[in-house]
Every structure is written in C-alpha cells, then in structure tokens.
Amino acid sequence: MSRQSQGVPNTAPKSVVALAAGTTNLTSEEHANRLLTIDTAGSLYTLNLPRATGSGDVYEFLSTTARTSNLVINAVGTAPSNKFVGTIWERTSANTLVQFSSTTNDIITLNQTTTGGLTAGDYLKLVDTAPDQWRVVFGLFNTSGAQATPFSG
C-alpha cells in the first residue's frame, strides 16, 4: 500500500522531477509517485533505488532526449537480494519488438544502442511490490542494432 493511499501526503511540491546527471540515491520522500525525467543527453546517470519493502511506491522514468551516455538503474539497495521482476520491451527503428524478462537481476542499463536510450521517449515504470522485489510494470526502450537484454547483475 502506497503512502498516498494511507493518507500520508507527498512532501515534494512537484509531480515531475528532473533528475540531475551523475549518481542519485532515490528516496520515497523526493522521488516516489512522481514522473522522473532524464533530460541531459551526454551525461552518465546512475540511479540507485531504495530497498524494496512492499510499500507500493511507484517510480516512473522518462528520457526526454536521445542518450549519448549510459543510464543505469540499480535495485541493489541495502540487501543483495533486491531484484527486478518483470518484462521490458525494446523497439528498433524498423518497429521490431523484442521482450526481455527478469526474475533475478538487480541492474537495468540503457547503453544508447542495443539495450535502449537511442531516442527520446524511453519509459520505465517500477513498483515496490514486496520486500526485496521491484516489479517492472512497463518498460519500452528504443534501440538499434542487435537488441540485447537491459537486465544484468
């Protein structure tokens, strides 16, 4: 159950949060239940999710620009058992769709080509559904070349 559904208001005044390039440790207070935008093309982003507890918090990511540097989302948290569970779709410019699923991985990487980040519009929605589990509700990444899984770790 999310904090909002329990009557606890979000403390940040914005529903859209532009993430800074570099490493960001995401927190439920500042980042949950908001649209998180990735707006800088040439900078590395490393986004560390908090430990999954089953809070129901939603983290939505939208790349507003074509990426020229990696975007890494880590589910490591404070426990090595934090994992992504679900499927991400990848689409090429020829509209070829391929799905990649995870039940054991804790890293998602967009590398600007085979795993996503090629164009603006890459989108990922994650929900904290259980202790140590991040559910991939939806993911669509734009790719080029031979499509490859964005999951690792």
Protein architecture, described:
With 153 residues, the protein is mainly β. Helices cover 3% and strands 45% of the residues. The protein starts with 15 loop residues before the first strand and ends with a strand. The chain contains 1 helix and 12 strands; from the N terminus they run E-E-H-E-E-E-E-E-E-E-E-E-E. It is globular, with a radius of gyration of 15 Å. It has a domain of 81 residues.
Summarize this entry quickly.
This protein has one helix spanning 28-31, and strands at residues 16-19, 22-25, 34-38, 45-48, 58-63, 71-74, 83-91, 97-105, 107-110, 123-130, 133-142, 151-152. The chain has 153 residues and is mainly β.
How many distinct beta strands? Answer: 12
Structural class: mainly beta
Shape: globular
Number of helices: 1
Mean pLDDT over the residues: 89
Radius of gyration, whole Å: 15 Å
Please state roughly what percent of the residues sit in beta strands, choosing from under 5%, 5-15%, 15-25%, 25-35%, 35-45% or over 45%. Answer: over 45%
Would you identify the regions where 5 or more consecutive residues have pLDDT less than 50?
A: none
Helix content: under 10%
Report the order of strands and helices: EEHEEEEEEEEEE
Spatially, the strands of the biggest sheet line up as 1-3-5-10-11-7-8
What is the CA–CA distance across the termini?
Answer: 28 Å
Largest sheet: 7 strands, mixed
Task: List the quaternary state of the chains.
Answer: single chain
